[in-house]
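Help! Submission page says 'invalid entity' but I think these are all valid:
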Amino acid sequence: MPKKVDHEARRREISEALWRITGSRGLDAASLRDVAAEAGISLGRLQHYFRTRDEMLIFALRHINQLAADRIRARIEALAEEPTPREVLRACLTGMLPLDDNSRIGVLVGAAYYARAVHDATLRAEARNGIPQLGAFFADQLRRAAERGELPPERATEDQAMLLISVADGLASYVLLEVHEPQAAVRLLDLHLANLFGDAVEGQAPAGE
Amino acid sequence: MPKKVDHEARRREISEALWRITGSRGLDAASLRDVAAEAGISLGRLQHYFRTRDEMLIFALRHINQLAADRIRARIEALAEEPTPREVLRACLTGMLPLDDNSRIGVLVGAAYYARAVHDATLRAEARNGIPQLGAFFADQLRRAAERGELPPERATEDQAMLLISVADGLASYVLLEVHEPQAAVRLLDLHLANLFGDAVEGQAPAGE
C-alpha cells in the first residue's frame, strides 16, 4: 500500500479517536495528549500526523462531514430505482438527523464544533463548507419536482432549499437536547415537506377541538 | 431596598459578566475566577452569591432566557393594537434570531450552553425549559389564525408550533455560522410562514428558469 494511503488512514483513525472523546465529553476535553491516549499511540506519534490541535480539528471535521455525505449518498442509493425528488430530499434530510449511533456521533461532534466556530473564523468557514453545494442539490430536486407537477413551481427556489437545511439542522439539535424523540423529529420533517409540497388536507381535526 | 432584591441584582450582574466572557470566548473560558474578575469583584465575594460554577451557569441561563422572553413580549406589545396571530408569531420568531447586540449575545450564550448540555442532563433540562410553554403559545396563535380563516384548520397543530420553534432556532445558528446574513434569516422565516399559511402563488419564476 502506498505510504500516502497509510498516512491518510492513520489520520482518519486519529480523528475517530477525537470524535469518541468529543462525543462523550465535548471538544474542549480533547487535547492532543488525550486523543493520542484514546488512539493508543504516543503523543510524538500523533504529532507526526498533526502538528497542531487546530490541524487535527479541521481534518476531523472534514472527515466526519465526508462520512455524513457518504451516509446520505447510501440512503439515496437504497431508494427505489427511480425515486421521486421528494423521496431523495427526505432521504437526505432524515440522514442529517441523529437517528442511529453513527449519525448521532456526527451531530454531537457538529454541536461541539458549532460552539467553537462561533468564536473562530477558520472553523466557521469549515463548518459552513458544503452547505452551498447541498443547497444547490436540494434546489435541483425542487426544480425536478416542479417539472413533474409535484411541487408548486414558485416554491422551486434556492431559499426553499436553504430553509430545508435549516429545518433539518434545527431538528437535529432538538433531538440532542431531548426536546424531541428521534421519531418525532422525523415526523416534524415530514410535516415541513407536506407544507412545502402543499399536500392536500387530510381532514384531521385541528388541535384543541 | 430589601436585602433579597440586592442579592438578586448582584447575581444578575455576575451572570452578565459571565455572558460577556461566553459571548467573546465561549463558556469553557468562564471559570469562577474569570467571571469574578470580569464583574470587578473578588472570587470570595462571587462565591457568596454562587457556591459552585454549575449554580452560576444555571442562574445565568435562566436569566438570559428570561431576558429573551421579555424582549419577545416587548416586540408583541410594539405591534399594532390588534395584531393578527401571524404578526404575533412573526414577532416572536424574529425575536429568536440574532438581529441586534442583545439577541446576538443571547444566541451566542445559547450556543455555548447547547454544546455543554448535550453532555449534561441538568443543563439539558434547563435548556429545554420553556419550550413546551412557547409551543403551547404558538399552537394557540395557530388556532386563532384558523378560527379567523387565515390558516388551513388542519395546520393548527402542536406539531406545526414545534416546527416553528425548530425553524427559528436552526436559522439562528446559521446566522452565527455566517451561512446567512441576519436579514436572509428573516426572509427564510417569512418563507416558512408563507408555506405554513399557504400564501397564494405570486407568479414569480421558479429558480433556474
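Support: the input was valid. A stray whitespace character was the problem, and the output above is from the cleaned input. Chain B touches chain A through 61 residues (CB under 8 Å).
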